[in-house]
Specification:
The complex is a heterotrimer. By secondary structure, chain A is of the alpha/beta class. Chain A is built from eleven helices and ten strands. In chain A, helix 6 links the parallel strand 5 and strand 6. In chain B, strands 1-2 form a two-stranded antiparallel sheet. Chain B has one domain. Chain C is mostly helical. Chain C is 68% helix and 0% strand. Chain C has six helices and no strands. The longest helix of chain C has 26 residues. Chain C starts with a helix and ends in an 11-residue tail after the last helix. The chains are: A alpha/beta, B mainly alpha, C mainly alpha.
C-alpha cells in the first residue's frame, strides 16, 4: 500500500510538472488500439479508462480495434506506427511472452515497449454453486484418487488458464484434464451446463456470474475486495499468484519523455478512487507497474512463463 | 415479478426513444448492406455516445442497429451475391437467382417481410420465455455443437445435387481452410506455411466476400449488358404479391423464426448455423425441393426470417446468463457493464424494468424496419439496377477491398479476399461451386472443437461414445434430423423412379 | 419429381476435363493435409488427417468420373470454360487490378491506390464511347465515392489505416 501511495504521489508530482510546461502533451486525441475484438476485458477496461483520461488530460482517447491471431496481428505492427505519443496499444500478459516462445507471431517480447501495467485479472478456480467441491482441498483429494478424471475448462491451449492448470498441478500434484474452449466467454456455458467440473477463469468471471458459481481460490497476494470470503492460493499453501495482466505499450520510436508522461497519466487514472471502485466492482485487481519499473517486472514474468512454456512444450 | 408496465411502455414509446429506434434501424440497415462493415463495428463505434444517454435509450439504439444490420445483410446478398456476414450466406442461394431472373424487387420486399416476422418472433420469445429458453445454451454441450455443425454440412449434399461428389470435395476443402492458423485445441500452428499473416486463420467474412463477389465482378465486366434487368416502369413494391407468398409460406416463416430463435441462443454458433438449418428444413419440407437454389421465394423467406430471429435469440443468454450469444451481443454486454448494470437473472426482476424497456424497444425497432426496409430496399434495388456498369464495378470492387480490410484493420485480409476470389473463379470453371467450400469454412471450427472437446472429456471420464452421442438425448434428436435430411431425397428419388416405371410400361 | 433430369444437362459420355484438373488440385491439397498432420500433436492432428484422407479419396473418384464422362453438373456452378472466352481481356484486367490493389495499398496508401484502381475499373466496366463531359462526371463520381468511404473508415468507424508512402 505504501508503495502504491508513493507511486501515486510521484505520478501526481510528475504530472504537475509537465502540465506547467509550455508544450503540453497531449494536445489532440490519442488513438488507443485494442488488439482484440470489442466486448472483451481489454475493451471494457479501455472504455472504463477513457472518461478518466479526459478528466486527467483534457483530451479524448479514440478506441480502435485491430483483432487477429490472439493479439499478435496488432503487436507485430506496433513499431511501424508513428512514435509521437498519439498511438498507444493495449498489451496483455502472458500473451506477449508466450506467443514468441511457442510460435513465430512476427514480434519478439522485447520488441514491445510497455509503459504501464495497470491491472490484472487473477486466476481463479471456479465451480458451480451446487458443486460437491467446497474447498481447493476437496479438488486435490478427488484428483489424487483418480488422476486426470476431473476436467477443468479454460480459454484455448497455451493460455493463461492453461498455465494456471499446469502451475496448480506442479504445486499440488493434482492432475486435472484441461479442456480448451475458444475463449473465456465460451467456457462459462461449459461450466454452468455441467460439461466440465470446474473452470480455470478469472475473478471477472465470478463477478459476472454472481450466485451461479463459487470461487474456490484466487491467485492474488491478498484477497479480492469483491470476494472477502474467498481465500488466496497462498493462504492455502499453494504458491500461485498471477493471471492475465493488461497494460499499454507504445511504438519504440516514442521518445523517453513521452513514455514517462504516458506512464504518469495512466498512474494518475489508476489512482482515482472512483475508477478503482468501478474496476474492482467488475472483478479486476488493480496493479501499478509504471515505466521505470517495467523492465524488472517483465524479467520476472518472462522467467515464470518461460519455465511453464517448456513444460507445456514437452507434453 | 412486479414490473411497472405503465412505466415500461411510456419509456419505450417516448418520442425520443422512438426516434432513436428509427435512426438505429436506418443506420444498421445501411451498414449491414455494405459487405465487411458489421453490426459489431457499428455498435462498438456508437457505444461511447450511448454513455451520455439514459441506459434504456442507449440500449434501444444499439438493439435497433443490430437488428437493422442483420436485415441489411440481405441487400448485398440479393443484389450482388455477396453475403456480408455468415448469417446471410443462405440468402444468396435463392435471393441472387431471383434478382438475376428479374425479380429483385420482389426478393427485396420478401426479405423485408421475412426479417420483420423473424425479428418479431425472436423479440416476443425474448420477452416471454427468456429465463427458460436460456437453459438451452447450457443444455447444449460440445457434442451437440459438433452434430449441429454436421447438420449444417448436410446442406452440401442438397446444394450440389447433380454432382454430390464435387460438393463433398468442396466441403472437405472448406473444412481444411478452417484449420489454418493456431489450433484452439492442441495449440499447434497449422498450414500457415510459416507466414505470420495466416496465424489468425482465414477470416470467414473476407473469404465469403471473395468467393461469392469476385466471380460476379469478373462476369460483370465481361459483357456490356446490365448487371440486373430493370423492373418494368410503374411496378411498385409488389407488396401484395409478396404478402400472398408469405401467407402461403406461413408455416415455413414461423418454423424458420422459431429455429432461428432457438439456434440463436447457442453462444458462438447460432448466427451462422440458424439460417443454414432453417433453409435446409424449408427445403426438406417443401413439395418442390428441386426449385431451391434457383430462385425459390420459400428459401429466401426461411433464411431471412431465421437470421433476424437470432437477434432476439442471441439476447437471451446475454441478458439471462451474462454469456454473449454473438459478437454484437458481447459489445452490448460490455456497454452494460461499463454503465454499471449487472447482468443475470436479477436483471429481469430488479433494476426498474430497464430490460423490459429495451425489449419493447427492440420490438418497436423491428416493426419500424418494415416501412424503412421497404423504402431503403427499393432505393437500393433501383440504385444497383440503374447505375451504369462503369460506376457499379468500381463501387462494388472498392466495397470488397475496404470491407475486407475493415474487419480487422488488416491488409492480409484483403489479400485473402482476392486470393479466395480467384480460387473461387478458377474452381467455378472446374464445376465446383463456392457454397460447399463456404459451409466447410464456417462450420469447420465448430465441428472440430465440438468433437475434440467431447473426445477429451470422454477420454477423462472413460466414456467417449457416451459423451459424444449415447448419453446425450439432444444429440439423438440432431442425429435423427441429419439422417432424415440425408434419407428423404434418396427416398423421394427411388419413389419417383418407381412411379416413372409404372407410368411407362 | 424431375430433380435429376433438370440438372444433368451434360450428355452422358462427355468428358469433364476442367473438372479433372480441378480435382487434381484437391487431390494434392488432400494429400498435403494428410501427410503434414503427422507432424502435429495428437489433439490437433485428428481432424486434418481424417479430412485430408477423405478429400484425397473423393478427388480420385471425381477424377475417374470426369475422365470417363460420368461427371454430372452441380446445381450451383460458375460459368464454364467456354463462356470465359467472351470478354476475357476485361476479365483479366479486373483480376490484375484486384490483385494489385490488395498488394499495393499497404505500401502506397488506401486513398491513392483505391482511386487509381477505381478509375481503371471504371474504364474496364464501360463499353460505350464516352463524351468528355460524361467522362468528367464519371471521374468526379468515383472521386467522391472513394473520398466518402475513406472518410467513413478513418473518421467515423475509427479504423486504423496502414501508413503508406502517400495516403
Amino acid at each position: 500500500m505504501i508503495f502504491k501511495k508513493l507511486t501515486m504521489l510521484a505520478a501526481a508530482a510528475a504530472f504537475a510538472g509537465v502540465s506547467g510546461a509550455a508544450w503540453a502533451y497531449p494536445d489532440k486525441p490519442i488513438n488507443y488500439i485494442i488488439p482484440f475484438n470489442p466486448g472483451g476485458e481489454s475493451d471494457i477496461s479501455a472504455r472504463l479508462q477513457s472518461p478518466y483520461f479526459n478528466k486527467v488530460t483534457g483530451q479524448d482517447v479514440v478506441i480502435q480495434y485491430q483483432a487477429g491471431a490472439g493479439g499478435a496481428q496488432a503487436w507485430s505492427v506496433l513499431n511501424d506506427q508513428p512514435g509521437d505519443g498519439y498511438t498507444i496499444m493495449g498489451t496483455n500478459l502472458p500473451h506477449i511472452v508466450l506467443q514468441p516462445l511457442l510460435q513465430d507471431p512476427g514480434y519478439e517480447t522485447d520488441d514491445l515497449t510497455n509503459v504501464y501495467m495497470f491491472h490484472f485479472t487473477p486466476d481463479a478456480l471456479i465451480v458451480r454453486a451446487d458443486s460437491e467441491f467446497e474447498t481447493v482441498q476437496d479438488v486435490i483429494d478427488a484428483a489424487s484418487e483418480a488422476p486426470g478424471a476431473l476436467t477443468a475448462g479454460g480459454s484455448a491451449t497455451n493460455s493463461a488458464n492453461h498455465i494456471a492448470n499446469q502451475l496448480f498441478a506442479n504445486e499440488t500434484g493434482a492432475q486435472l484434464t484441461y479442456i480448451p474452449y475458444t475463449g473465456t466467454g465460451a467456457s462459462i456455458p461449459g461450466l454452468l451446463g455441467g460439461e466440465v467440473e470446474m473452470l480455470w477463469g478469472y475473478t471477472t468471471v465470478a463477478a459476472g456470474q454472481g450466485d451461479e458459481v463459487r470461487m474456490l481460490a484466487v491467485a492474488q497476494e491478498e484477497r479480492h475486495p469483491l470476494f472477502p470470503d474467498v481465500p488466496t492460493f497462498k493462504e492455502l499453501g499453494i504458491d500461485m499468484v498471477g493471471g492475465a495482466y493488461r497494460g499499454i505499450a507504445v511504438p519504440e520510436s516514442t521518445p523517453e519523455d513521452i513514455r514517462q508522461q504516458l506512464s504518469d497519466i495512466i498512474g494518475e487514472i489508476n489512482a482515482d478512487p472512483e475508477f478503482i471502485a468501478q474496476m474492482e466492482e467488475a472483478g479486476f485487481a488493480m496493479l501499478d507497474v509504471p515505466y521505470d519499473e517495467m523492465d524488472a517486472f517483465m524479467e520476472e514474468r518472462k522467467r515464470v512463463y518461460g519455465e511453464i512454456a517448456e513444460q507445456l512444450n514437452d507434453e | 415479478m412486479d414490473i411497472d408496465f405503465g412505466f415500461v411502455l411510456s419509456q419505450a414509446f417516448s418520442p425520443f426513444n422512438l426516434f432513436l429506434a428509427l435512426i438505429g434501424v436506418v443506420l444498421g440497415t445501411v451498414i449491414g448492406a455494405l459487405p465487411g462493415l458489421s453490426a459489431t463495428m457499428a455498435i462498438a463505434v456508437l457505444v461511447p455516445f450511448t454513455f451520455t444517454m439514459d441506459p434504456a435509450s442507449g440500449l434501444i439504439m444499439l438493439g435497433a442497429i443490430y437488428t437493422g444490420a442483420i436485415y441489411g445483410g440481405a441487400y448485398a446478398a440479393i443484389l450482388v451475391n455477396t453475403p456480408g456476414t455468415p448469417s446471410a450466406i443462405a440468402t444468396t442461394f435463392d435471393g441472387f437467382p431471383m434478382a438475376k431472373g428479374g425479380n429483385g424487387d420482389l426478393a427485396m420486399t420478401l426479405a423485408s417481410l421475412a426479417s420483420v416476422t423473424g425479428g418479431v418472433v425472436g423479440a416476443i420469445l425474448l420477452m416471454t420465455l427468456s429465463p427458460m429458453l436460456a437453459q438451452i445454451a447450457l443444455a447444449f454441450h460440445s457434442s451437440e455443437y459438433f452434430w449441429l455443425a454436421i447438420l449444417g454440412l448436410t446442406l452440401v449434399a442438397s446444394l450440389s445435387s447433380g454432382n454430390v461428389l464435387k460438393g463433398l470435395i468442396g466441403g472437405a476443402f472448406g473444412l481444411t481452410l478452417s484449420m489454418i492458423g493456431v489450433a484452439v485445441i492442441g495449440g499447434d500452428t497449422r498450414y500457415t506455411f510459416n507466414t505470420t499473416a495466416l496465424l489468425g486463420g482465414i477470416d470467414i467474412v473476407s473469404a465469403l466476400i471473395g468467393l461469392y463477389c469476385i466471380p460476379v465482378l469478373i462476369d460483370m465486366v465481361a459483357r456490356p449488358d446490365r448487371h440486373l434487368e430493370p423492373a418494368p416502369l410503374g411496378r411498385g413494391f409488389r407488396l401484395f404479391e409478396a404478402i400472398g407468398i408469405c401467407a402461403k409460406n406461413g408455416f415455413n416463416l414461423i418454423r424458420s423464426s422459431i429455429i432461428g430463435t432457438l439456434v440463436g441462443i447457442l453462444p458462438g454458433a447460432g448466427g451462422s448455423i440458424a439460417s443454414l438449418v432453417s433453409y435446409s428444413e424449408a427445403r426438406r419440407a417443401s413439395r418442390h425441393p428441386e426449385r431451391f437454389g434457383k430462385g425459390e421465394p420459400a428459401g429466401l423467406l426461411a433464411t431471412e426470417s431465421a437470421n433476424n430471429a437470432t437477434v432476439g435469440g442471441g439476447f437471451i443468454p446475454t441478458l439471462v446468463l451474462g454469456i454473449p450469444g454473438t459478437p454484437p451481443d458481447a459489445v452490448i454486454l460490455g456497454a452494460l457493464l461499463v454503465q454499471g448494470i449487472r447482468i443475470g437473472p436479477e436483471l429481469f426482476t430488479q433494476q426498474s424494468g430497464i430490460v423490459y424497456v429495451f425489449m419493447f424497444g427492440l420490438l418497436i425497432a423491428t416493426l419500424l424496419m418494415l416501412p424503412m426496409g421497404l423504402l431503403i430496399g427499393r432505393y437500393a434495388y433501383r440504385f444497383i439496377v440503374n447505375t451504369p456498369k462503369g460506376l457499379l464495378v468500381p463501387l462494388i470492387a472498392f466495397m470488397t477491398v475496404v470491407g475486407s480490410f475493415a474487419i480487422h484493420a488488416n491488409p492480409h485480409d484483403v489479400v485473402v479476399m482476392v486470393s479466395m476470389g480467384l480460387l473461387g473463379w478458377l474452381l467455378g470453371l472446374a464445376g465446383y461451386g463456392p457454397s460447399p467450400i463456404v459451409l466447410g469454412l464456417v462450420l469447420g471450427q465448430i465441428a472440430e472443437q465440438g468433437f475434440m472437446r467431447a473426445y477429451m472429456i470422454g477420454g477423462a471420464r472413460g466414456d467417449f461414445a457416451g459423451q459424444l452421442l449415447f448419453n446425450r438425448p439432444i444429440s439423438w434428436g440432431i442425429v435423427a434430423l441429419i439422417v432424415i435430411t440425408l434419407a428423404v431425397p434418396i427416398f423421394r428419388h427411388f419413389r419417383a423412379n418407381g412411379k416413372a416405371k409404372e407410368v411407362r410400361p | 419429381m424431375s430433380q435429376d433430369t433438370d440438372n444433368q444437362t451434360t450428355p452422358a459420355g462427355e468428358k469433364d476435363w476442367a473438372g479433372a484438373v480441378g480435382s487434381v488440385f484437391f487431390l494434392i491439397v488432400g494429400l498435403y493435409t494428410f501427410v503434414t498432420s503427422f507432424g502435429m500433436s495428437d489433439m490437433a492432428a485428428m481432424f486434418p488427417r481424417t479430412i485430408g484422407a477423405v478429400m484425397a479419396a473423393l478427388a480420385v473418384l471425381q477424377i475417374l468420373a470426369s475422365v470417363t464422362g460420368r461427371s454430372g453438373k452441380s446445381l450451383e456452378r460458375g460459368s464454364s470454360v467456354a463462356e470465359q472466352a467472351e470478354g476475357l481481356g476485361r476479365r483479366l484486367v479486373l483480376v490484375a487490378v484486384m490483385a494489385g490493389w490488395a498488394l499495393l495499398f499497404p505500401i502506397i496508401g488506401m486513398f491513392v491506390t483505391s482511386f487509381i484502381a477505381c478509375v481503371i475499373l471504371m474504364a474496364t466496366g464501360t463499353f460505350a464511347r464516352l463524351s468528355p463531359l460524361r467522362l468528367g462526371i464519371l471521374l468526379g463520381t468515383v472521386l467522391v465515392m472513394v473520398t466518402f468511404f475513406y472518410f467513413l473508415m478513418t473518421n467515423v468507424l475509427n479504423i486504423p489505416m496502414p501508413r503508406g508512402l502517400l495516403f
